[in-house]
């Protein structure tokens, strides 16, 4: 971009260099990609939690931005985060709250575009294993399925149980993934309850396998559970990567916001035509019923609400003593710089 010349006469060359260095990410927003081959880690790609990622991939929106993305699918968000920390992934498509968790461990990662404006996680108890369930206290000593230990499904279960005075150590968490394995784990009695995402939870609910006891698939349900808006799926990266690769980050944000824009008007048949057949878990009608339940949870324009970051911190600090709210700098956990430009570009 060549907008610098407007102010050139008003600066000494030294001041200009300083200003250019400070404004570099902004000035180079649509410039050459610093890195075009990008490794993305995700935990449970076939779930609706990550639908915007799949849509942007399937419709060629990453390619349109000059990106060659390789997406690796893991059993849950905690595993995807490990890939980023271990250096095998550049970007994670995962839950925003991991940025807070990592900062509490002095590791700085930053969210750059939002895909989910509600967690879309539901918790249910097995109607077979716990037919007489009455309150959360009944879960003490039980086996609870989560996508993967340490993932956002695990965090939500911890939050709910803590409100009933149940510590994480009072239950056994079992990683069951987010697809067919999760269905069979509950139906075969390997677990007593489950905190998971759709389409799995709707499939279990509609067949009468679970009784839903907490639900963040709607904005209203999210408000009831968290007391405010709760940002969910996003792209997060090492803060150093964001600083060093602003054009690449802009391209990533553009691709996702393009997908979000498409999703705003997409009908059920559009979704079915776009996602891989395996995502339907053998039941097209139930898959579409799940989509109807979580549609509201999908972000609209990629922007991360400031109030939502405060909600996330409050929720995590309420059950995790290692997170000291007063020591977390929320401004370092996210930036809306890239999403704002993408929103303008696609009129999202």
Automatic annotation (TrEMBL):
Q: Subcellular location, in the record's words?
A: Periplasm
For this protein, the record's SMART domains field holds: PBPb
Signal sequence region: 1-29
Q: Which InterPro entries match?
A: Solute-binding_3/MltF_N, SsuA/THI5
Reading the lineage from the top rank, the first entry is: Bacteria
Question: Where does the Solute-binding protein family 3/N-terminal domain start and stop, copy by copy?
Answer: 37-278
On whether Signal is a keyword of this UniProt record, the answer is: yes
Stretches assigned to coiled coil: none
Coiled coil among keywords: no
Task: Give the GO cellular component terms, alphabetically.
Answer: periplasmic space
The entry's keywords:
Signal
Q: Which Gene3D superfamilies does its entry note?
A: Periplasmic binding protein-like II (3.40.190.10)
Regarding protein family, the annotation reads: Belongs to the bacterial solute-binding protein SsuA/TauA family.
The UniProt entry, under PANTHER family, shows:
ALIPHATIC SULFONATES-BINDING PROTEIN-RELATED, TAURINE-BINDING PERIPLASMIC PROTEIN
Q: Per its record, how is this protein called by name?
A: ABC transporter substrate-binding protein
Q: What organism is recorded for this protein? A: Caenimonas aquaedulcis
């Amino acid at each position: 971009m060549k907008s610098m010349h407007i102010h050139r006469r008003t600066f000494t060359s030294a001041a200009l260099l300083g200003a250019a260095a400070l404004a570099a990410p902004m000035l180079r927003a649509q410039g050459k990609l610093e890195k075009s081959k990008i490794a993305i880690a995700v935990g449970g790609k076939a779930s609706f939690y990550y639908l915007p990622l799949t849509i942007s991939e399937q419709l060629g929106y990453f390619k349109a931005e000059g990106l060659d993305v390789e997406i690796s699918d893991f059993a849950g968000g905690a595993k995807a985060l490990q890939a980023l920390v271990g250096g095998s992934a550049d970007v994670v498509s995962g839950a925003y709250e991991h940025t807070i968790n990592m900062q509490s461990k002095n590791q700085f990662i930053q969210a750059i575009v939002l895909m989910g404006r509600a967690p879309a996680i539901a918790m249910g108890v097995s109607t077979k294993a716990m037919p007489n369930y009455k309150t959360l206290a009944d879960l003490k000593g039980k086996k609870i399925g989560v996508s993967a230990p340490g993932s956002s499904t695990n965090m939500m279960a911890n939050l709910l149980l803590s409100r009933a005075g149940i510590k994480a150590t009072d239950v056994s968490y079992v990683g069951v993934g987010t697809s067919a394995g999760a269905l069979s784990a509950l139906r075969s009695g390997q677990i007593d309850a489950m905190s998971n995402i759709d389409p799995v939870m709707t499939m279990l609910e509609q067949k009468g396998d679970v009784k839903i006891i907490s639900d963040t698939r709607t904005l209203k349900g999210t408000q009831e559970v968290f007391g405010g808006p709760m940002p969910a799926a996003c792209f997060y990266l090492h803060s150093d990567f964001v600083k060093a690769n602003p054009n690449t980050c802009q391209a990533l944000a553009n691709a996702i916001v393009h997908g979000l824009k498409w999703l705003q008007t997409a009908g059920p048949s559009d979704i079915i035509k776009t996602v891989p057949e395996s995502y339907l878990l053998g039941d097209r009608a139930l898959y579409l019923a799940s989509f109807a339940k979580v549609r509201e949870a999908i972000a609209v324009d990629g922007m991360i609400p400031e109030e939502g970051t405060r909600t996330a911190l409050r929720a995590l600090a309420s059950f995790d003593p290692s997170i000291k709210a007063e020591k977390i700098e929320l401004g370092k956990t996210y930036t809306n710089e890239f999403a704002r430009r993408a929103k303008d570009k696609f009129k999202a």
